[in-house]
Design a protein that fits this description.
The protein contains two helices and three strands; from the N terminus they run αβαββ. The protein is 40% helix and 26% strand. The protein is globular. The mean pLDDT is 91. It has one domain: 2-Layer Sandwich (Translation Initiation Factor IF3), CATH 3.30.110. A hairpin with a 2-residue loop joins strand 2 and strand 3. By secondary structure, the chain is of the alpha+beta class.
């Protein structure tokens, strides 16, 4: 899926995780290298680790 679809799905999946919970993402889209860190900065979620195609995101505290 493209990054537009990816960030929408990421938002929906993080919604189901408790604040402070971790989400492991594997993204094959090459644009994810730039898009996932940018999305995390914009939304306040923490990008804990990024080694494309694997990302670890901590859901922000509410």
């Amino acid at each position: 899926m493209g990054c537009g679809e990816l960030v929408v799905q990421l938002k929906l999946r993080l919604r189901d995780i408790e604040p402070g919970g971790m989400f492991h993402l594997v993204a094959s889209d090459p644009g994810a290298r730039e898009d996932i860190p940018a999305w995390c900065r914009l939304t306040g979620n923490t990008l804990v680790a990024a080694d494309h195609p694997t990302y670890l995101i901590e859901r922000r505290s509410e």
